[in-house]
Automatic annotation (TrEMBL):
Belongs to the SmpB family. One of its GO terms (molecular function) is RNA binding. It comes from the Bacteria. This is SsrA-binding protein. GO terms for biological process: trans-translation; trans-translation-dependent protein tagging. Keywords: Cytoplasm, RNA-binding. Required for rescue of stalled ribosomes mediated by trans-translation. Binds to transfer-messenger RNA (tmRNA), required for stable association of tmRNA with ribosomes. tmRNA and SmpB together mimic tRNA shape, replacing the anticodon stem-loop with SmpB. tmRNA is encoded by the ssrA gene; the 2 termini fold to resemble tRNA(Ala) and it encodes a 'tag peptide', a short internal open reading frame. During trans-translation Ala-aminoacylated tmRNA acts like a tRNA, entering the A-site of stalled ribosomes, displacing the stalled mRNA. It is found in: Cytoplasm. It comes from Amycolatopsis marina.
Length: 160
């Protein structure tokens, strides 16, 4: 059976980039059972309200919803169980030190298949305040308006 090459995104957490300032990202493996992988291959998962914690030197992913596999039997998995993340010891030590700082948390950004294995991209992030979110929206709107004006100027000069 040939292995899949490349990266196939299953689900991404678009709201995380809006609610948090991303400081650093990590790629981690995931400890899953068979029916979870089958459900993920069907493209079903949700990272809404998901977060990661460091407990006793291990990193755990919590509140990720992977629905039960439809063709599963009594051995089907629990939809919102805690899942262990696989990281190098040095990365875990770094995360322990950083999360002890005030206001930093671990947020999953995306879940994807990489070379046939399920990976999750987690970010060390700081929560944004409401005014930070408004500033980001204002910057984005201003950039879009400049791009529109440049497009109109180019079309006005060269469009005829």
């Amino acid at each position: 059976m040939p292995k899949e090459i490349g990266r196939k995104v299953i689900v991404s957490n678009r709201k995380a980039r809006h609610d948090y300032s991303i400081l650093d990202t990590y790629e981690a493996g995931l400890v899953l059972v068979g029916t979870e992988v089958k459900s993920l291959r069907a493209g079903k998962a949700s990272l809404v309200d998901a977060f990661a914690t460091v407990d006793d030197g291990e990193v755990w992913l919590r509140n990720v919803h992977i629905p039960e596999y439809t063709h599963g039997t009594w051995t089907n998995h629990e939809a919102r169980r805690h899942r262990k993340l696989l990281l190098h010891r040095g990365e875990i030590e770094r995360l322990i030190g950083k999360t002890k700082e005030s206001g930093l948390s671990l947020v999953p950004l995306s879940m994807y298949f990489k070379d046939g294995k399920v990976k999750v991209e987690i970010a060390l992030a700081r929560g944004k305040k409401a005014y930070d979110k408004r500033q980001d929206i204002a910057k984005r709107d201003a950039r879009k308006e400049v791009e529109r004006a440049m497009g109109r100027a180019v079309k006005g000069k060269y469009g005829r």
